[in-house]
Design brief:
Oligomer: heterotrimer
Largest interface: B-C, 63 and 62 residues
Structural class of chain A: alpha+beta
Number of helices of chain A: 12
Distance between the termini of chain A: 50 Å
Radius of gyration of chain B: 28 Å
Number of strands of chain B: 28
Shape of chain A: globular
Largest sheet of chain B: 7 strands, mixed
Strand order of the largest sheet of chain B: 3-5-1-12-9-10-11
Chains: A alpha+beta, B alpha+beta, C alpha+beta
Helix content of chain B: 25-40%
Chain lengths: 277, 805, 173
């Protein structure tokens, strides 16, 4: 499988990347680790005429906390994140979830920003960032804008980012001492999640629950969250997980099975974070 | 640093200095754990697979393949493609009139390029050739083909429905073969049996997925065609190409270089063998074709794909009185001779290890708009072992008996061997089925496991536990010739040439063509012994080149060791007899008094009187120093024709946990006891069993080629087709139980297909056992979490319904 | 578009001009003739093409050569030192961790990458660590034992160690 021809340009800075995007309009595409894009290009499901490589930009590699917010450069690789002691301590849900992405080789190249921009509902990172109530900093020709994860994932593989915008940073509120759980069900070790459930305790009584592969976009299980806020136990809250979902059907399971898995995994996750049974 | 053959004393008594025959002092290499001769090259990137062959001027072929399961080609526009940079040509089927067809059943030959109609997704329609693989891919993408879709018949039910249009041109029906194999259907015996049950088994369609996809390079030098191809049987491919191109066989050379796995699917014949050869002739340059994985999953032949309807008659003790087997074999869009005949092998082995009063059998092979079906590891026998082992468990379940007891009551006994089945020529060799089961049970606390399974049933906090058995027999050592002829081979023999060089080192050429089995090591072990202890490192084994190897057949049907091994032994024996005669002549002693200790010959009872192997070997090339009338040299070629098939057997057990909520099956133990007769190398024998089991376990739990209602394959990448990774396969416990066969002089039965034959039903029986209290009697493979959850839920609903009514 | 690229492959500098879309695996195989690195799929699943790139195991079918300009690559051909196989290679030989040998270079490089990060993995860690590499012959258990053998006999070996050290010195791993 061979990609169609294109012009590869390695951006030397964010400004350079932005200028290249502006110059080439819709024909240009950004690439960081390339692990979502290159397979699509090999199948010729994507055929940009210009590929702007931002994978090497040090501007996109920040990893720091700033007043209760973790600032993550979009160019950080999964490997960087899973090995960061600071992230493991401050955002253990994210650090754990990225360690389940793909395989070691994929995690050595793939980036968090790439996962966000690809917007795959079956991927781990978008749903986890949704549960963490992250925001995304997009740089366009008119400057930066910040979009909440809840508003970012628009439809299957579609995001709120404009074609000429670059995701530069992911801001994640830290939740020191709060419990979390990530339940990922896969048929094979290297499969995408059949269903995944991320739970993050937000405050003393509130939880965020987000779902992987339960619809065209990563979803917040708001009815589960509401039930928890109303004091429901784990299994009662988990029983509400199907509301508002539209799970796909494929060889790994039909929509009904996915709905069932979501409930099982949610109950497990809620029990793990300490919600009573 | 580590360059010493590793030998662990795991077989006491086999490694001692034990003379195998008079005059022979060295320890036996047969049976010794020896690291492989093949490995250093493969471990350092010095292997030579077909895509590694880079001949000067090579151009690349790419296909335009059908996106439709069934359609008429209305137009092909290759104008743009033909004009692209680096493109040497674009051809459709119409442009290549007169091109020979691929191997098939007479009257159903498959054209290399679809002739006006496409019959499965992935069927080649157009070929392009360009100067490099990137340009070839670009040109293929630029060819525009228009189609008029036809109704796609993707299932055997659709293909057999009344009024279904025949898929294969020139046929009257999609049932391309309809064969009763017995005179009656055993209705009388079934009706007379105290108990009668039926079972429908779907043995799902699988893809072989060798990690090296298909590929070949064709080139012409002078009038000689050379095809380098990743195949299991180069000589048969040469024979076919020679006929197709009207060439004499000496001007048709086929080379199988290092081959990255085959599993039966590389024994099939593919259109690219003809297309690269023909286009290389036309373009006067080497042409290479390397399949992508997406192409591989729709183009390389698939396996299994049987539906079996079984009717079983049995008595109160679970003795099998009669069995009716009716098989429908999906053969895909172009019937392959092997694929079409697979049910014959299934029927021959459908009685398993058991004495069954009467078996009645019939089969129908049915064309569908899908990828053609042919051999996949075990080819017809795993389907048999699965059906009879499921039958045993069903009978046990119906009668409330222990499946172990039902097996024991039905076994053919060791003293009845060789055992003639009801099928002419199918005669089981020496085996001890009850002994295998005893050996297996010695590794399991069966009673303890049963007690735990019972306890878990009532403890919803823990996963369900199930125990499954598979005590199986299969066929190995394919030949003999009258049988193997029927699969299209010229014979069922194998060949070996042993040549000792003047310094006493040895070069062996063999007619088999290995692709991971370790023949270079195993045959060197056999030759080392037969040559009186020539060290392994002084022996080289060659294979896979029709121009330099004598006539051969190839590697399939677990025939390497049982059929080619004796040829190696015989030809080595011949060389050794000559060495002894020369040594006797040199030492002026009687041949009977010559003894050999590895590389030294001496005279029994005459200390100090000795010559080295190298001196003897050198003398063989000095006619003036040889005994009167002896021919020059040390080279012996032998063919070996087996007297019969061999019958590897074994007893396997699987213990599974089933998650009550998700349906996930986890194998917590897998124990295998195999009887492959003589074990040549315990290290590689273990590799064959474990590798086969991984495929068997994957069939049980993960893998299936799936088509949607329009005939679109939805498992055409490794994202969807679930080949297991390391975390998905359990550690296995493997043991050997040797009962030598008398059917060949080595006593070896073959082992390559045992794991894939034994594994699926061990796992399925275990899962059915775990769910039996819910009333689950049968489960289709692959037993994905989704499928198990669905089955558990349906069973529970039935229970709940019964409770309310 | 074409690019002048300079890489260091198995300790030797290479200078070539490549097309934008050329995949690193094809650069290694077709341009440099390092055919030990194999292609087994097109979806980044099989791992047969795994090499070390700046000290990390990556799938060379999912990296453009142009994007690898300036990097240091170690392939299976560079794993041995002074003609002596690395402990990982030797472990596969001693424990029969290969049959057909096609997935093997990727397995070796992936196992080496794993041991650079986790020097003493247990068997579960080895299995998970190799989840990006498919083998159709062995059933994996003997591969797990091969890697454990390497752990007990010196780890990754000198060539991989010095490759990783260079990457670490450059802040790349």
């Amino acid at each position: 499988m061979i990609p169609a021809g294109f012009d590869y340009i390695r951006a030397t800075s964010l400004d350079h990347a932005a200028a290249l995007l502006a110059e080439h309009d819709d024909d240009a595409k950004l690439m960081a680790g390339g692990h979502s894009l290159i397979p699509l290009m090999k199948y010729r499901l994507a055929a940009p005429s210009v590929l702007v490589d931002i994978g090497g930009l040090s501007e996109l590699r920040m990893l720091e906390t700033d007043g209760g917010v973790f600032r993550l450069g979009a160019g950080l690789r999964y490997r960087d994140l899973e090995r960061s002691a600071e992230l493991r301590e401050q955002l253990p849900l994210l650090a754990h979830a990225v360690s389940t992405v793909g395989d070691r080789q994929v995690r050595a190249r793939g980036t968090i920003g790439g996962a966000v921009m690809h917007g795959d509902p079956a991927a781990d990172v978008p749903a986890v960032l949704l549960a963490l109530e992250a925001t995304f900093v997009l740089r366009g020709k008119d400057g930066d804008r910040e979009v909440a994860a809840a508003d970012f994932f628009v439809d299957f593989w579609q995001t709120a980012a404009e074609p000429d915008e670059i995701l530069v940073e992911i801001r994640v509120p830290t939740r020191p001492g709060r419990s979390w759980s990530y339940q990922k069900f896969r048929q094979r070790s290297q499969d995408w999640a059949t269903v995944g459930v991320a739970v993050q305790q937000l405050d003393d009584s509130g939880y965020a629950v987000a779902l992987v592969n339960m619809g065209p976009v990563p979803l917040r299980a708001t009815e589960v969250e509401q039930a928890l806020a109303d004091g429901a136990d784990a299994s009662t809250a988990a029983a509400r997980v199907g509301a508002g979902t539209a799970p796909p059907s494929d060889v790994r399971g039909d929509a009904e099975y996915r709905a069932h898995l979501a409930e099982v995994l949610t109950a497990t996750a809620l029990t793990e974070v300490g919600v009573g049974g | 640093m580590y360059d010493v053959p590793l030998r662990t004393p795991e077989r006491p008594g086999r490694l001692g200095r034990r003379p195998r025959r008079p005059g022979r002092l060295m320890a036996s290499m047969v049976g010794a754990t020896v690291v492989r001769k093949e490995d250093p090259a493969l471990l350092t990137g010095r292997g030579r697979f077909v895509d590694d062959i880079q001949l000067p001027g090579t151009a690349y072929l790419a296909y335009v393949r059908s996106p439709h399961a069934h359609a008429t080609i209305t137009s092909i526009d290759s104008t743009e493609a033909a004009g692209m940079p680096g493109v040497l040509g674009v051809w459709s089927g119409d442009d290549l009139q007169g091109l020979p067809n691929c191997r098939s059943i007479p009257g159903m030959e498959r054209p290399c390029l679809a002739p006006g109609t496409v019959r499965f997704v992935g069927e080649p329609v157009v070929v392009v050739v360009a100067t490099d693989r990137y340009r070839a891919a670009d040109a293929a993408a630029a060819v525009v083909v228009d189609y008029e879709p036809l109704p796609a018949l993707c299932t055997i039910e659709q293909a057999m429905a009344a009024g279904a249009a025949p898929i294969v041109p020139g046929t009257a029906s999609n049932v391309v073969m309809d064969q009763p194999l017995t005179e009656d259907d055993a209705e009388a015996e079934l009706a007379a049996a105290p108990h009668r049950s039926t079972l429908r088994i779907r043995n799902q369609r699988l893809a072989a997925v060798p990690i090296e996809p298909g590929g070949c390079v064709a080139t012409w030098e002078g009038g000689t065609l050379t095809l380098y191809a990743t195949v299991q049987a180069p000589h048969p491919v040469r024979n076919e190409l020679a006929v197709m191109f009207g060439l004499p066989q000496h001007q048709t050379r086929v080379v199988a270089p290092d081959v990255g796995g085959g599993f039966g699917a590389k024994a099939s014949f593919y259109p690219e063998f003809i297309l690269t050869a023909e286009l290389s002739r036309r373009l006067s340059r080497p042409i290479k074709y390397i399949e992508t994985r997406s192409e591989n999953l729709v183009s390389m032949t698939h396996g299994r794909a049987q539906v079996q309807d079984l009717d079983i008659g049995y008595d109160d003790e679970g003795r099998l009185l009669a069995l009716r087997v009716a098989i429908v074999q999906d053969v895909g869009a172009w019937p392959d001779p092997t694929g079409t005949g697979l049910p014959t092998l299934t029927v021959f082995m459908s009685g398993g290890c058991y004495k069954i009063g009467k078996i009645a059998a019939s089969f129908r092979s049915v064309a569908t708009n899908t990828t053609p079906i042919a051999a996949y590891r075990g080819a017809g026998r795993p389907e048999a072992a699965f059906l009879i082992e499921r039958v045993i468990d069903l009978v046990a379940d119906e009668l409330g008996l222990d499946p172990v007891d039902v097996r024991r009551r039905n076994y053919v006994q060791p003293e009845e061997m060789p055992f003639a089945t009801q099928w002419p020529g199918i005669i089981y060799d020496e085996s001890d089925y009850p002994g295998l089961l005893d050996a297996l049970l010695s590794h399991l606390d069966y009673d303890g496991l049963k007690a735990e399974a019972a306890q878990r049933r009532d403890d919803p906090s823990r996963p369900l536990l199930g125990i499954g058995f598979s005590t199986f027999v299969e066929m190995g050592g394919f030949g003999p010739s009258p049988l193997f002829e029927q699969f299209g081979y010229i014979g069922g023999w194998e060949s070996s040439t042993v040549r000792m060089n003047p310094d006493g080192s040895v070069v062996i050429s063999v007619g088999t063509s290995p692709h991971g089995q370790g023949h270079e090591t195993a045959f060197a072990q056999i030759a080392s012994d037969a040559l009186g202890g020539v060290p392994m490192e002084r022996i080289t084994v060659l294979h896979g080149d029709t121009q330099t190897v004598q006539e051969g057949i190839g590697t399939m049907g677990s025939r390497g060791i049982p059929v080619c091994g004796p040829a190696v032994q015989k030809s080595s024996d011949g060389v050794r007899r000559k060495l002894i005669r020369i040594a006797a002549h040199m030492l002026e002693a009687s041949e009977d008094d010559i003894q050999q200790d590895g590389e030294t010959f001496s005279v029994l009872g005459t200390p100090g009187s000795e010559v080295s192997l190298a001196e003897v070997a050198l003398t063989a090339y000095k006619p003036h120093k040889l005994p009167e009338g002896m021919d020059i040299g040390l080279q012996v070629m032998e063919y070996y024709e087996p007297t019969n098939l061999s019958y590897p057997s074994g007893a396997h057990a699987c213990v599974v946990e089933v998650d009550r909520q998700t349906g996930r099956v986890t194998i917590v133990r897998y124990v295998a006891v195999d009887d492959c007769g003589t074990v040549i190398n315990p290290l590689t024998a273990r590799g064959q069993v474990e590798g086969g089991l991984a495929q068997g376990i994957a069939q049980a739990l993960l893998e299936e080629v799936v088509y949607d209602a329009d005939g679109q394959p939805i498992t055409s990448t490794l994202v969807d087709y679930a080949v297991p990774g390391a975390p998905d396969i359990p550690a296995m416990e493997t043991h050997h139980f040797e009962t030598k066969t008398s059917f060949n002089p080595l006593g070896a039965k073959g082992l390559g297909e045992s794991g894939a034959t034994a594994g699926p039903q061990a796992v399925v029986n275990a899962v059915v056992d775990a769910l039996s209290h819910l009333g689950v009697r049968n489960l289709d493979m692959p037993m994905t979490p989704f499928k198990i959850w669905t089955a558990m839920r349906a069973a529970q609903q039935e229970i709940d319904q019964e409770a309310t009514t | 578009m074409r690019h002048d690229v300079t890489l260091r492959v198995n300790g030797v500098q290479t200078d070539d001009t490549v097309e934008s879309r050329q995949l690193l695996v094809h650069y290694l195989r077709d341009t440099l003739g390092l055919t030990g690195t194999h292609v087994g799929c097109d979806s980044s699943n099989c791992g047969a093409c795994t090499v070390l790139l700046d000290g990390l195991a990556v799938k060379s079918c999912t990296v453009f050569t142009a994007a690898a300009d300036g990097t240091d690559v170690l392939t299976v051909e560079g794993l041995a030192s002074d003609g002596e196989m690395s402990p990982v290679q030797e472990g596969f030989r001693q424990c029969h961790g290969l049959q057909c040998g096609y997935c093997t270079p990727g397995m070796l490089m992936s196992a080496t990458g794993l041991l650079l990060d986790v020097p003493e993995p247990d068997s579960d860690e080895i299995r998970t660590g190799l989840e990006g590499n498919l083998c159709r012959c062995t059933g994996y258990q003997m591969i797990v034992e091969s890697v454990s053998w390497a752990v007990e006999h010196g780890g990754v070996g000198a060539a991989a160690r010095s490759h990783a050290d260079r990457a670490a010195a450059a802040g790349l791993r």
